[in-house]
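Preliminary data (for renewal application), iron/sulfur cluster complex.
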Amino acid sequence: MATEVKNLKELIAPAAYAECEVWVSKYPAERKRSALMGCLAVAQRENGGWLTNELMDAVADYLEVPHIAAYEVASFYSMYKLKPIGKHLVDVCTNISCMLNGSEELMAHVKNKYGIGHGETTADGRLTVRSVECLGACVGAPMCQVDSRDYHEHLTPEKLDALIAGLE
Amino acid sequence: MVNIEIDGVKLEAEPGSMLIEAADKAGIKIPRFCYHKKLSVAANCRMCLVEVAKAPKALPACATPVNEGMVVFTASERARVAQKSVMEFLLINHPLDCPICDQGGECELQDISVGYGKDVSRFTEGKRAVRDKDIGPLVATDMTRCIHCTRCVRFGTEIAGMREMGATGRGEHMEIGTFIEKSVDSEVSGNIIDLCPVGALTSKPFRFSARAWELNQADSVAPHDCLGTNVHVHQRRSQVMRVVPRENEGINEVWISDRDRFAYEALNGKNRLTQPMLKRDGQWVETDWQTALEHVANSLKAIPAEQLGALVSPNATAEEAYLAAKLMRDLGSNNVDHRLRRADVSTQNAEGLFPALGLAIAELENLDACLLVGSNLRKEVPLAALRLRKATRNGKIAVVNPAEFDFNFKIAEHIVADGLNLAAELAGIAKALVTDPAALAADAAEALANVVPTAAQAHAAELLKAGEKKAVILGHLAQNHPAYGQILGLAQLIASLSGASCGVLTEGANSAGATIAGAVPHRAAGGRSLVKPGLAAKDMLSAGLKAFVLMSVEPELDSADGAAALKALNNAEFVVSLSAFNDGAARDYADVLLPVAAFTETSGSFVNVEGLWQSFAAVVPAKGEARPAWKVLRVLGNLLNLKGYDYVSSEDVAAELKALADSATVHAGSIKLAAVNGAGEGLVRLGEVPLYAADALVRRAPALNKTADAATAVAGLAPALAAQLGVADGDKVRVRQGEAQVELPVNVDDRLPAKTVLVSSQAALGSLFGALSVEKA
Ligand code: SF4
Ligand code: FES
Ligand code: FES
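Predicted structure:
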């Protein structure tokens, strides 16, 4: 009895599906699975920033790998989220350089002002904050990464507020 | 060969092999957890660190290839420090509660920590705990104990071909499991219990019922499929506690199927027959052996010989089959058969001394090309599927099946024959292989005259043309098919045209032995021909004989036509059932129930599909008054005043049979081919025998019958047929075959072609491969 798994095509927008096709085209046909990370990222973005089991299954089927292979990758990397998160994600680096330059204050400020700690989301669902390890931008410590893409350096609580306020 | 030195011992090692292999060969012990000789090298546990001269650090022996002149120390100060540190590291999170762990006493971690662990831990921090997963009825989990060796994960990927377990999360948060709540469904899943070096994965049915040191181990042979898988039976106080693999590289390597591992549970069930029973005025009464056997002898004597029939289980030992056949023949009847599900015996005289695979089991993995016909291999002979899976590394496999069954390996050409018409597909493949039509025998030329191969058939033929080692293998569905003669003839033609061997993977553990023993109507023991052959199983049942001797079979569930079998038995004047169980339909139709020893309770021999004889001794005594069936048959022979029933042991019986087999002179003949007809218009039943419904023992094994492979009676319909009938999953349909009809829930199954309806063998219906009608209930 085959378990029902939806086709990736049915789950994400055509443009996103086309993006997955691009990922697949980058690797030899018998190494399709190499496109797993790229396709999971696309699927996550399409789903408002997190991956459902259904999406992971669909990506796995699309790339002809066992479902567990998608779960392994998605649970290994912290950039994949397996639970719903806020509309925006702010990852504050709290590793050594950033810590020496005030990242603990930043996290405390976030707790005071927005009422959320590591891994938590504001009640209005707008913001999720995490404390993360070194993002390789120590020269600009303390720093954060917004929505898994943009780096913001030399932060102060005020700069962080401005940054958060500026997110649509 | 490479010269190396380990602990001062000079050794020669295979180039490219790892240090640990060389050490193992020389009997030098290196501790290890993740390394396993049948799995890929993961080198993740680091327990096997050894000192290699000139290397700056200790190296993992499992991942360090041998090199000319290498000097290795496995127990030097440096090696010991490294090994002890790894041990300490592994024990940081591993619970130290061996007294309450099921693995205690047979745990690799426990054993190795005795040698390499400290007696006092330096850690005071809390240990990590991992939530347990429910991965099904066979394997219990205690994931807190997992040391992340990934043997179970690699087994799924590399051996079972079904990756269900994985390592999710990272670092401290890494967990082994299925991630989602899901059962592990592989039919060989139990092997991860043996592979797991700790108590993370243990046997659910066995769990907490005994300690390893209380068990006595005995050698045996598994009684379910034709490979003759070697097992160890573990018993305590005359009760079988579990079954585990016994290594035999030529047969099962180090694995066993779940069926072979867990079927023993049925031995300890409440429904065992422990006392001879007679039916008096419709009531069952217990009696003694003397009374029961005299009653049987008198009843059999009173019935004309040609009205006697014996049905023998293909899982019966060769000794049992031999004596059952001998008894019938001495009574004057050749009506004896073990091929209960076989619907077509037209070619039996052209078949060899015993149904054979045609090559060594171990050779399956070296095939360059294979054509598999009528086989849901994973659910028929699970370990043969593992072997064939290895062949797909270099070889190509084509399949001709009545439905698109799942395989755990890659199929190069998957041909699905609608309406069960396997022969038509084979004719196409044969035609595509013909290069010189003039060289064909007249019957073959005529049979293929109007055949035009399809692209798929031509491709399958193409695959068979390539390569050196090739085989055509017929599975259970082919052998039970009503056109088996034609299928076999065409398969042989394909084999001869392509230079392949042609063979079968039979049902039961001892079809070969039973055939050699003469438990067939057309030949006596050792293949001796008969003046007047008897009736085959199916013909005995349709002829409605007056008396039946049942040797560990339940014909209503084990036959080509269950309804016909039940009818024949109900109508017979006298039925004696030699059985290990006191339940089922036999209580209605039988007149005498004779309790016989089950698997592990009798000595005997199985002959596997290679023709290999494997004898085994009884491990535990039979339950209650039950006796080994060979003894029962011997005494019956004496009571019937027949000559030559003075055996003292089963070895005597085996010796007599072997002498007959050694002087056998059977030669396989050629099968006359006829043109293949198209499939009929109506619906046909695909009567598959579910993995855990194959024989009386496994049908009664509780844990197996809670798995995903448990036999559930459903009507599998192709999507188009379901739509046409206006039914969906779970709806009820009425399925009819002749007079028999049952109501079954629908399972829409896209593996099925349009005219084929999958109704497995345990539905109370007629012919497994007969016409049927389906209507909305
Ligand atoms: S469950 Fe057992 S076999 Fe699997 S990774 Fe853990 S310790 Fe190894
Ligand atoms: S420590 Fe923060 S970016 Fe490196
Ligand atoms: S056995 Fe060598 S690293 Fe595990």
